[in-house]
Amino acid sequence: MRNPWLALEAGGDPAERAGQVRRAHEAFLAEGAITAPVRGVVADSWRRCAGARVEPEGVARIDLDDHGLADCRAAHPLAGVMPLVRELLGSIADDGAHLLSVCDARGRMLWVEGHPQVLRRAERMNFVPGARWDERTSGTNAPGTALALDHAVQIFAAEHYCRPVQSWTCAAAPVHDPRTGRVLGAVDITGGDHLAAPQSLALVQATARAAEARLAELAPAAPPRTAAYTLDVLGRDEALLHTPYTRATGRPLRLGPRHSEILLLLAAYPDGLTGDRLGHELYGERDVHPVTLRAELSRLRHLLGPLLLSRPYRLRERLATDRDAVGEALDAGDVRAAVAGYPGPVLPRSEAPGVLRLRLLLEQRLRRGVLASGDPALLEGWLCSPWGEGDLEARDRLRSA
């Protein structure tokens, strides 16, 4: 079976493939139709880009000036593993044909390194430190798509959504916080069509895993948690459940989207929810048979064992969430800690009414805290985030500050 994350099958002709994809790209821009031989991962990305109204002739925007870039580099966890990344990918960056880059979780390039001649070529498409390369800003590209899907991926030639990037091929892999599983950013190599080989994807994946291992060595011991069970739901579509067993193994349990919604709702209502109420929080006014919910809960019980109780549905022990932690920081008036603990909205792709409400409540509280703080750094960070960009009141407050 073909690996969907690889751009070319073994023995594939790069020139022929590039021509096929270029024609498919033009057809998509003209008619909105996806035709073979576009990979599913690329087709889905093109649709996301079209939905975000990315300009096909556009280039990445610069989000960070020199001062802001220096501050972000100094504060970012990946700064501590850059010597290792350079050690593993340094020959790539020095060979006169490739670039090494590392971005943060928002897709902002913090480091772009390589031969001066290649760097000058890359400047034409704003592939430079401080530029933003998430999909919603710069279209389909390896670091942006790796962040969007939380998976290593190659993007080849005309698979890039924006035409100024289509003369390049890249491979990128996300890097995670080894303690929380949260995405910290991505490592990427960018160059010519020869990077469509399987070795480039394996190389960035190995570098990302090595960086995570080094981060685990550098991290201070995690403070003891007040709850034995914790749930991470911020900035991720599939929640991570931490239990005494998963902490011992160092591997949290990744839940599916529906189970993530159910556990979040039960954590938010510790006294429990009836089947009807839980169904309404999950499905709203949709006509969903009660058997559907019971089947979901039965599968979840196989995962959780005695932690999940019924009549009403509730949890045997307290389940603390990272959403709670942000709320507690806001309660204490520590807006900076709240912002630092907020990597993104609550289960951002969920459309469950109960989750939408919890997401909106926290985002509104955080926004009010940032606006009231008057702190230029917090206001700028809010405006640079996907959930805060376009906030005119915050922009006015920043100007005043």
From TrEMBL:
Any matching Pfam family: GAF
GO MF annotation terms: DNA binding
Domain OmpR/PhoB-type as annotated: residue spans: 250-315
UniProt keyword annotations, A-Z: DNA-binding
A single GO BP: regulation of DNA-templated transcription
Keyword Aminoacyl-tRNA synthetase: no
Protein name per Swiss-Prot or TrEMBL: GAF domain-containing protein
Organism of origin: Streptomyces boncukensis
